[in-house]
Amino acid sequence: MGFLFLLSLFLMLLMAINYQSNLIYALTFWLGTLFVVAIHVTHANLSGLEVTALRAEPCFAGELAVFQIRLVSGGRSRQGIRLGWSEKRSPETAQNPERRDAYVDIAANDAAEIALHYPALRRGWCYPDRLRIEATFPLGLLRCWSFIMLDQRVLVWPAPVSISTLLPVADASDQRSRVALIAEERDLAGHRHYRIGDPASAIDWRSLARGQPLSVEQYFTPTASPRWLDWDAIPSADPERKLSELCGLALQAAKDRSAFGLKLPGHVLEVGLGQEQLEQVLTLLALFRLADRAPIL
Q1: Could you tell me which of 34, 210, 46, 282 has the C-alpha nearest to residue 139?
Q2: Where exactly are the structural domains of the chain?
Q3: What is the C-alpha to C-alpha distance for residues 158 and 288, in angstroms, rounded to an integer?
Q4: pLDDT in tens for each of the 297 residues of the chain?
Q5: Could you tell me if residue 48 is left (phi over 0), alpha (psi between -120 and 50 degrees) or otherwise beta?
Q6: Are 225 and 140 in contact (CB under 8 A)?
Q7: CB 69 within 8 A of CB 113
Q8: Please, what sign has the CA dihedral across residues 286, 289, 294, 297?
Q9: What are the residues facing 219 on neighbouring strands?
Q10: Cα separation of 114 and 122, whole Å?
Q11: Which residue of 65, 71, 209, 293 sits 20 to 30 Å from the alpha carbon of 269, by its own alpha carbon?
Q12: Which fold has domain 50-157?
């Protein structure tokens, strides 16, 4: 657009010279002055903008990782700021540019948080490309841009695959006691009215302090026998397929609220329960290195 604008000014100047029209002269030089002023305004729209990388949540392979970027405007307002990655890494993002780039306006002395999507193609640590920040404000004739390499990464878990493999039951010698598991990881299921004989430790004292009726907290407890997610018990020959199947089994075990542990070549994670146990298992699967068959954390 800027080059077309300059070409138009050149043609207008030729017309002014040919017809000796002061009005065309005035319009041509006024538009030229406006173009020069727009150079400084477009640059000032990005100059001094503060960019900070925030934490990115883990995702599964094949999904779009979400990176949070924080922008601080400083003493002036920012208009039409466009953020995206410097390269198109997959056909999915190439066909859907609206999922790659984001636009934002920021008032003076204000901040904004932007979510940018990036294709996570493989398990492990995913490092995005350079961040591209650009703006064409105010006239759209000029583009001011900059590339930033932010210190950010996201953990990519293996893509889960569902299988019907029967996992081996954890022996008492290989796990902590079931009573300890239940006491360590308890998920709140709800409340019910107090009944005579209920233990005092189960009473919801905080709701009673707020003037609500006396109630008792109820928790989910595991019902299935603890199981081992064993590398050697998976029949698949492809190592990456094994990791995906183990990931699917871990998600299913967590959904069923059953205790489970993980056995990988070179590493054993004790039987546990709950969301923290699931995240530890998924992290080990994501960072499992096939070269020396040992996980790298």
Answers
A1: 34
A2: 1-29, 50-157, 159-186+222-297, 189-220
A3: 10
A4: 889 999 999 999 999 999 989 999 999 999 999 999 999 999 999 999 999 999 899 999 999 999 999 999 988 899 999 999 986 554 444 544 445 688 999 999 999 999 999 999 999 999 998 999 999 998 889 999 999 998 899 999 999 988 766 555 655 544 444 444 444 445 555 666 777 767 776 777 777 777 777 777 765 555 556 888 888 888 888 899 999 999 999 998 888 888 889 999 888 888 888 888 999 999 999 999 865 554 555
A5: left
A6: no
A7: yes
A8: negative
A9: 188
A10: 24
A11: 65
A12: Immunoglobulin-like (2.60.40)
And the tokens for 51? 């960019």
Residues across the chain: 297
| CA atoms of 111 and 118, how far apart (whole Å) | 22
Tokens of 131: 């961040």
Q: How far apart are CA 268 and CA 44, in angstroms?
A: 56
User: In whole angstroms, how far apart are CA 11 and each of 7, 23, 36, 74, 265?
Assistant: 6, 14, 18, 41, 74
What pLDDT was estimated at residue 114? 92
Assigned token pair, 5: 């604008």
